[in-house]
Every structure is written in structure tokens, then in C-alpha cells.
Amino acid sequence: MKTIETKPLIPLKEVRASFRKVVAFDLLFFGLGVITGIGIIAGFLLS
Fold this sequence. Notes:
The protein is mainly alpha-helical. It is 60% helix and 0% strand. It is flat and about 60 Å long.
């Protein structure tokens, strides 16, 4: 029977970011998602 070796967990460092940066990052990807969605829908409608 094999024994399973467990590695010690690496403690995660807390990442701190200002609220404005988080919102800006979120809006950036939301905008990219909207543009991508419009492109997909236009592709279906125009084909």
C-alpha cells in the first residue's frame, strides 16, 4: 500500500487593490464581453 505524501499548503498573500481599479477592470471586461456578444449575434444574423 502506497502512502500519499501531502505538501504543506503555501500561505496565500492578500492582494490589495483600490475599489476604483477593481471597478475599472470589471467594466473593461464587461465591455469586451458586450462587444464579443454583439459580434456573435451579428454573425448569426448576417449569415
